[in-house]
Design brief:
This protein has 80 residues and is mainly beta. Helices cover 14% and strands 40% of the residues. It has a 4-stranded antiparallel beta sheet with strand order 1-2-3-4, with no helix packed on it.
Length: 80
């Protein structure tokens, strides 16, 4: 895919301070063909991601890759 903007990462809110270890993170990347947002919160061991594309792709492949990459045993997803 062709990167249009990003990747960008930033702390999730004004409660995060750069002088302490960064444990929560938001991220975004835009491709000409699609994009992705990620929001991760270590204190609650929770993350959410929106992955979208203008081209067809195998959802199960993306879900399986994400599950393995973040080592999740309770990942859930919804295809729309």
């Amino acid at each position: 895919m062709t990167v249009f903007a990003g990747p960008y990462c930033w702390p999730p809110d004004d409660r995060s301070h750069l002088e302490v270890p960064l444990v929560d993170l938001n991220g975004f990347i835009a491709w000409k063909e699609s994009g992705c947002h990620v929001y991760a919160f270590s204190e609650t061991s929770f993350f959410t991601s929106d992955i979208y594309s203008c081209k067809p792709y195998d959802v199960r492949t993306v879900v399986d890759y994400t599950r393995k990459f973040i080592e999740s045993d309770d990942l859930v997803f919804k295809e729309v």
